[in-house]
Design brief:
Blueprint lengths: L2 H7 L1 H4 L4 H10 L8 E3 L8 H11 L4 E3 L4 H16 L18 E7 L10 E7 L7 E8 L4 E7 L12 E8 L1 H10 L6 E8 L5 E25 L2 H19 L5 H20 L1 H17 L1 E19 L1 E5 L9 H44 L1 H7 L2 H18 L8 H52 L5 H27 L18 H11 L8 H17 L10 H29 L1
Parallel strand pairs: 1-2
Antiparallel strand pairs: 3-4, 3-6, 5-8, 6-7, 7-11, 8-9, 9-10
Length: 585
């Protein structure tokens, strides 16, 4: 198909390219003159005709940017947006604000309308188009009956044609019962509050429903008030009364004392008159300060307060249109669909792998027959080579005919049909080199084991001659088997299955290796301490019987016993060195 033919077939689609740009500018209330640049994203932006249509709409007023990977930007943006709204983990917020593209309205009515009265309904736009998501809005109204609530999309130009308007329905009950209870108390109709949430995913739902009635009640409370402090005045009156009582009690005193007292008072009159003005000023200040002093106290007062009666309302949710939440049945159905899709994907992958396996083996047979013709001729007959060549040609023809739509089981059978005879020939070709190499390696290994066992005669006295003989006998048995197999293979027809293969050869030395390892780790015999002490005691007694031995000299037996540990240490180190040499072998 040519590009011109493709553009002709998609002409109606290209006409719609600039429509989203115009709608976005209209929703944002901006013009092209206010736009500095535009960056294209999405895989379709690689199509030259789409770029042409966009440039035509922009009229060279805005530069068209093609600076980022359009496919990667869409995937990366979706990942960042998912991280922003995720509640499972927290990441640094990436500047991306989503909006509600379509207006959502609410309609309220009575669940059981009274036919005798005018129908009660209320309708309003709850979430406007272009508003933010992740917000809550409360609808409040006064009513005394249970209500029915309908959430729908509003009909708008931006709403795609054929979109289901109905979203969710709610029956809010408990209002009538609560209103009757409040009426018995002489209160008015309750105020109903319905809280709706427009989630970050663009889903609208009723999250809270309650009714409330306010009541003014009179309550008695203790309050703090300030009062004048009269305690000092009462104290002054008490003092005056006490002075009067004391004067009456002294009336019976002698005249001499009275005269003396009067004389003293007259003498003080002059002095007191000089200070009368100052004292009068001080008394005035003191009285003023006494009047200003106040104290706090509590008293009971009656106040009017607002009391709120609240009641949570029951909400029943149901749907009437195609837009419905997942039920258990739908979830089970979806899980079954996903399981089936996973199974089919797995079968498809396995079928493709089997098809590629058959196809590659066909070419493998053809290439082998050409590249390794000389080697294959040594282990196969002309009839065998012709058989696998014919199988490969027939399989190739079948692959591009009936095999194109063959299932997995058929492909596996076809591979078994090819690999059976061809695999035997290719195995014999491989064994031509692998068998001699395996036999050579085994002979070298047996020779090393035999040399190691021979060294044990001096290096490891703890290994008995019977144990060494057992190892050598096993080596001879393996060598005899190797001789028999080599002779049998020489006599056998090279175009038939081999007498033995290279994988069997290394297994023959396993038992010998286990036995040698066990003997190599056999511990040395321990010297008994009691025997050593008895020998030292005997040497000491013999030294004491010799009368010519002085206290300052040591006997030969003592020198030998003292030198024994050093010799044993040297011997032990020598044996350890030999053990290390045997390990290397």
């Amino acid at each position: 198909m040519t590009r011109s033919k493709m553009e002709e077939l998609c002409a109606d689609l290209f006409e719609r390219v600039a429509t989203p740009i115009a709608e976005a500018l209209k929703a944002a209330n901006v013009t092209l003159d206010e736009i500095d640049g535009m960056e294209l994203i999405g895989g379709g932006m690689r199509v030259p005709r789409i770029q042409q249509e966009i440039r035509s709409f922009l009229q060279d007023k805005v530069e068209l940017g093609l600076h980022i990977n359009s496919d990667e930007s869409m995937a990366l943006g979706a990942a960042f947006h998912g991280a922003n709204i995720s509640t499972a983990f927290k990441v640094r917020h990436v500047g991306l604000a989503d909006v509600n593209p379509f207006p959502i309205s609410i309609r309220l009515s009575d669940i059981r309308p009274n036919t005798e009265e005018e129908e009660w309904t209320k309708q309003a736009t709850m979430f406007k188009a272009g508003g933010k998501v992740g917000i809550k809005k409360t609808i409040a109204f006064t009513h005394d009956k249970d209500v029915h609530c309908a959430i729908d999309y509003e009909e708008a130009e931006t709403l795609p044609e054929g979109t289901e308007l109905s979203m969710e329905r709610y029956n809010v009950t408990g209002i009538g019962k609560f209103a009757a209870e409040m009426q018995e108390k002489g209160l008015g109709s309750p105020k109903v509050s319905l809280q709706f949430e427009l989630s970050l995913s663009g889903v609208t739902e009723l999250v809270k429903a309650e009714a409330a009635v306010e009541e003014m009640v009179v309550v008695t409370e203790e309050v703090e008030v300030e009062v004048d402090d009269d305690d000092e005045e009462e104290d002054g009156d008490e003092k005056k009364n006490e002075t009067a009582s004391s004067e009456e009690a002294t009336e019976g005193k002698t005249e001499e004392k009275k005269e003396a007292t009067e004389t003293k008072e007259e003498d003080k009159t002059t002095e007191e008159s000089g200070n009368a003005t100052a004292e009068g000023g001080n008394e005035t200040a003191t009285e003023g300060s006494k009047k200003k002093k106040k104290k706090k106290t509590t008293k009971l007062v009656e106040k009017e307060k607002k009391k709120v009666h609240k009641r949570s309302l029951a909400v029943e949710v149901y749907n009437v249109g195609r837009i419905r939440p997942y039920s258990d049945e739908l979830k089970d159905e979806s899980v079954f669909k996903m399981t089936e899709l996973t199974r089919k994907d797995k079968e498809r992958v396995m079928l493709e792998e089997a098809r590629n396996k058959v196809e590659s083996y066909i070419y493998h047979i053809k290439n082998k027959l050409v590249d390794d013709e000389e080697v294959i001729g040594k282990v196969s007959t002309e009839e065998q080579r012709e058989e696998i060549r014919k199988l490969a040609e027939d399989a190739e023809e079948w692959m591009y005919d009936d095999g194109y739509n063959a299932d997995l089981a058929t492909m596996e059978d076809k591979y078994a049909e090819l690999s059976g005879p061809a695999g035997k020939i290719f195995t014999r070709v491989m064994e031509l080199e692998a068998r001699p190499k395996a036999m050579k390696d085994l002979k070298e290994k047996l020779g090393k084991i035999a040399n190691l066992v021979k060294k044990w005669e001096t290096d490891k006295p703890q290994v008995t001659s019977e144990e060494r003989s057992d190892v050598l006998e096993k080596i001879q048995e393996v060598e005899s088997w190797m001789t028999e197999m080599e002779e049998a293979q020489e006599k056998a027809d090279p175009t038939e299955d081999p007498v033995f293969n290279s994988a069997e050869v290394p297994l023959k030395s396993k038992d010998i290796e286990v036995l040698v390892t066990r003997l190599h780790r056999k511990p040395k015999p321990k010297v008994e301490k009691n025997a050593t002490k008895a020998e030292n005691a005997t040497n000491t007694t013999e030294g004491g019987a010799d009368s010519n031995t002085t206290d300052g000299e040591s006997t030969p037996s003592e020198e030998e016993s003292n030198s024994t540990p050093d010799k044993e240490e040297e011997k032990t180190s020598t044996e350890d060195t030999k053990d290390e040499e045997s390990d290397e072998l």
